[in-house]
Amino acid sequence: MINVENITKQYALSKKQRKELQINSTSVAAVNNVSFICKPGRVFSLLGPNGAGKTSLLRMVSTILKPSSGDIKVDGVSVIDNPQEVRRKIGFLTGSTNLYDRLTPGEIVKYFADLHGMERSLFNERKENLFEQLNINEFSKKRIGQLSTGMKQKVSIARSMIHDPSVVIFDEPTSGLDVITANSIIELIRQCKKDGKTVIFSSHIMSEVDLLCDDLAIIAKGNLIYNDTMDAYRKQSEGKSLIEAFINIVNQNN
Ligand SMILES: Nc1ncnc2c1ncn2[C@@H]1O[C@H](COP(=O)(O)OP(=O)(O)OP(=O)(O)O)[C@@H](O)[C@H]1O
């Protein structure tokens, strides 16, 4: 379960940034007083135009970024009071993989399992399942530096899921991937849902949202402008495509 409670994020702007953006203000508001709930066993999708604040929000849920105000509880644990405990509960995946080029996929997941203090037998079982599910075995002994973007993305997923987190956060997980690799990630998200995990993901790909998501929130310019179930969203689309409905909601709130 994720409870986002009145979250605001303001980035301080340097002199150089103010000059580049041609503004006098010393900070920019990326997220404004946003609240929503993501439930276990359901997939929650975060949508919004470029620069809406999606990545900032997901980074605050995953404790990489500190909120300016408000709080987020992950399975009841506050990201402000106990970020370390929150980190144990979550798996976070972004488009930029940032893996060490000189290690193999096997070595990388072992390294992260050790950071989480996983027992060897549990680690072996989990690794076997993930590597099979994501088809990593065929390149598990190659160094990361020799792998393609999609292969790296799969390793990155295995790394963020190795400790069996109850909450998984995907920031544009399929961006730039071929349909086969993207599909294996979609299957993994489905499996997470079946396993009763809380899943939140951001995407610009409406067909993916349509396939996966149970609940959705739309943010624009840092504000929450829509939050309901996918069924309610489809109903209110009144025969329009999901993309048209999205554009209408964003334009109405501009
Ligand atoms: N480190 C930073 N310093 C200053 N402003 C930032 C910083 N990071 C993000 N922003 C600003 O905060 C706002 C929200 O950015 P964010 O990356 O969260 O949006 P997004 O919805 O993820 O966008 P996209 O879909 O393009 O990835 C934007 O106006 C962006 O310029």
UniProtKB/TrEMBL annotation:
Gene3D superfamilies tied to this protein: P-loop containing nucleotide triphosphate hydrolases
**Family that this chain belongs to:** Belongs to the ABC transporter superfamily.
Q: Please give the organism.
A: Aureibaculum algae
Q: Key word Ribonucleoprotein present in the record? A: no
Q: Which SUPFAM superfamilies match?
A: P-loop containing nucleoside triphosphate hydrolases (SSF52540)
Q: Which UniProt keywords apply?
A: ATP-binding, Nodulation, Nucleotide-binding, Transport
Q: What is this protein called?
A: ATP-binding cassette domain-containing protein
Sequence ranges assigned to domain ABC transporter in this UniProt record: 2-246
Q: Which InterPro entries match?
A: AAA+_ATPase, ABC_transporter-like_ATP-bd, ABC_transporter_ATP-binding, P-loop_NTPase
What GO molecular function terms would the record report?
ATP binding; ATP hydrolysis activity
**Pfam families in alphabetical order:** ABC_tran
The keyword ATP-binding belongs to this UniProt entry's keyword annotation: yes
